[in-house]
Amino acid sequence: MEAPDKNHSSILTKVSFELNINEVTVFRGPAGSGKTKLMEILGLRRQISSGTLEYGGVDVRSFSDEDLSRTRQEIGFISEEPVFLRKYSLYRNLEFVLKLQQTPEKIIFDRIIHVLKMTGLIAKRDIEPAQLSRTERKLFMLSMELAREVQVLLCDFNFSGRKDEEEIMRLIKNLSEHGTGIAVTAREETEYGIQGIGYRDMYNGRLQ
Fold first, then answer.
1. Degrees (nearest 5) of the Cα angle 80, 81, 83?
2. pLDDT higher than 80, residue 67
3. Assuming Cys at both sites, which of 34, 150, 192, 193 could form a disulfide with 205, CB separation 3.0 to 4.6 Å?
4. Residue of 1 and 45 predicted with greater confidence
5. Tens digit of pLDDT for each residue in 20-29?
């Protein structure tokens, strides 16, 4: 597939791959290589100019507006800059997200507690996200998407291989084993000693 920028020149060229459930793929490359644009395409936030983009084996260009809206709800998207409600606790942020997608009241509490335990944030459920460390904020954004039970998770973290990131990557790998397809962005040559993670390198809008 190919995708244009606002000047109609290609920002991604001849990109071909599959993102499957139970898999983690790390897209590595320098700044400006097209990683974020690729994630935006996978998250159905940007259109392609040629080729095909399939979700569940169906070309998304054949989707109705209703199909697109429903599919976007099945895709979690996390950017480098965390997005959350200020002055709300972790618990209240998660509660807001679940109520927004009309999750039954009777399961909201249990689901929130479950995901906060999974991400190691249960002891901080009553504090505001702004009080979390950099790593904890990323874990909390993972909590937000886990609570929604997305089928595809796109993490535009632009990781660089620091030790504190390995904790998040181990959690991401564990999550993928429960039926989620996950893609993560990282800087070039970033690698983690975790089995079962695939790596694809990007340069100048092309996958190597």
1. 125
2. yes
3. 34
4. 45
5. 889 999 999 9
The token pair at 136 is: 């904890």
Rounded CA-CA distance 92/16 in Å is 40
Closest to 57 in 3D by CA, of 19, 3, 1? 19
Helices (H) and strands (E) in the chain, counts: 6, 10
| Cβ-contact 75, 51 below 8 angstroms | no
- pLDDT for position 123: 97
Look up residue 97 and give its two tokens: 């997200």
Q: What is the largest CA-CA distance in the chain?
A: 50
Q: CATH: 3.20.20.380, 3.90.1720.10, 3.40.50.300, 3.20.20.80. Which one for 1-74+153-202?
A: 3.40.50.300
Cβ count within 10 A of residue 131: 11
Cβ neighbours of residue 55 under 8 Å, at least 6 residues apart?
44, 71
